[in-house]
């Protein structure tokens, strides 16, 4: 991973985690 790309990757990871958690909650 490149240092200059780290913040973007972290942001994408957070967005994906949020979507997954919401999806699981919707199923539950």
3D architecture notes:
The chain has one domain. The longest helix has 22 residues. The protein is an all-alpha fold and 28 residues long.
Show the helix and strand layout.
Blueprint: H1 6-27
Quick summary:
With 28 residues, the chain is mostly helical. It has one helix at residues 6-27. The radius of gyration is 12 Å and the shape is rod-shaped.
Total beta strand runs: 0
* Tally of structural domains: 1
Determine Rg (CA atoms, Å). Answer: 12 Å
Class of secondary structure makeup: mainly alpha
Global outline: rod-shaped
Estimate the helix proportion, in percent. over 70%
Sum up the structure in keywords.
mainly alpha, 28 residues, 1 helix
